[in-house]
Specification:
single chain, 6-stranded mixed sheet, 7-stranded mixed sheet, EC 2.10.1.1, binds ligand LQZAQKY5, about 450 residues, binds molybdate ion, about 25% strand, alpha/beta, MoeA_linker/N, MoeA_linker/N_sf
Length: about 450
Amino acid sequence: MTAQDADELDVDVEEALAVANDRPARGPGAPRPADGTPADGPPTAHRAKKDAHHRATPWPEARAVAERAARSCGRRSPLSVTVEDALGLVLAAPLTALTDLPSFDTSAMDGWAVAGPGPWAVREDGVLAGHAEPERLTDGEAVRIATGARVPLDTTAVLRSEHGRTDEQGRLHATRDMAHGQDIRSRGQECRSGDQLLPLGTLLTPAALGLAAAAGYDTVTVLPRPRVELLVLGDELLTEGLPREGLIRDALGPMLPSWLRALGAEVTAVRRLGDAADTLYEAVRSSTADLIVTTGGTAAGPVDHVHPTLRRIDAELLVDGVKVRPGHPMLLARSKENQHLVGLPGNPLAAVSGLFTLAEPLLRTLAGRVAPERYGMPLREAVHGHPYDTRLIPVALRGDDAVPLHYNGPAMLRGVATADALAVVPPGGASPGQELELLDLPWATAGIQVCFT
Ligand SMILES: Nc1nc2c(c(=O)[nH]1)N[C@H]1C(S)=C(S)[C@@H](COP(=O)(O)OP(=O)(O)OC[C@H]3O[C@@H](n4cnc5c(N)ncnc54)[C@H](O)[C@@H]3O)O[C@H]1N2
Ligand code: MOO
């Protein structure tokens, strides 16, 4: 099938693809218009859809545009935050050791600090971690010592408790050969004060925060999180209870903030705006966020106000539709200087697709994070493709395979709710064993509130 044929058919296949999961795929290169593909619509609607599709940006390019859009924003001033608050932020200055590590010679084991060859006379006192400098040892002397305690001056080794025995005279003998300096962690073994521990641009993981604290930091210099305002559109949305009388539960309000935070953002507000054009206009016009994310209202229905609002504020549309399923009506605009707007389609899986296509590269770049290493895994089962658009489908990673999950229709979250990643299915589909690029779905840091006691 040529792209032209595909255009002519203009098959909106994703709904049908979602229910075609149980049927065997025909493999790549042999896309099929899904069963139940609607017959040609009225000529004008057909033309409008075709035009929209020609405007649409190819999926890889849309991601590159989003990344470039973030780079076009001015330099963001670094700020100082406490180590406890720095998880997921990026270092705006190298982390340089403020002390030697260890900062004193320390015992690596519980046992005895000994001086010279044994046997040793054991001193009465002992040395615990956190205590002031112990008395110097003389040759032939030993003292009880705990892991992490400062070793007395002139200690030649630490003898582990399990490798020593005391005779009737109370003298300590080693039951194993010991090397000079054994089980002593000498001062500066890990770093010297002034050594660079982490370069500028490092993402602060839990381990990096631990290292910063160990190296003497109370605060670290980081790039600020991009501030995101989430505007949830739709008069049909309920925030509690069961769906009723044409109303449905808002699935995006509870889902997107955690993901936005995991992608590096600070979510400053989640506002449910209904479908009033003026309310949306006012919210966008007055927003001071770095990024506005809207949900719903991206299509051309009577209450789809995102495009008209962008026209009204004279925004620059950078991406107006993407050749990806689900989510092709997604958009990216520069709404004002140093501010962008990502319009996510209302269908929940389409919104997820938009989040990882447009918001992820934009936020990652604003946050100063580096792009994750691209990787792929072989598919366990065939997946149908769209004739000429990329598809993103939820997959679970099992052993060495990516297993496509069912219930992956644009309005469904049942598949992605147990997914580890989105697989990037090229136009035409993919056959079993074919390696597909994967986009990880970040759960790990999603909205976790840390409580230090
Ligand atoms: N004539 C056309 N109609 C539509 C097209 C098209 O190309 N031509 N594209 C369809 C596709 S694909 C999508 S995706 C949607 C995008 O529509 P909108 O972004 O304008 O979204 P809405 O119309 O507001 O909502 C779509 C759908 O999603 C439900 N929704 C919205 N928000 C939420 C939410 N927070 N939680 C749960 N569900 C939500 C909403 O009720 C609708 O069912 O347009 C198609 N139409
Ligand atoms: O088919 Mo729409 O782009 O995804 O739900």
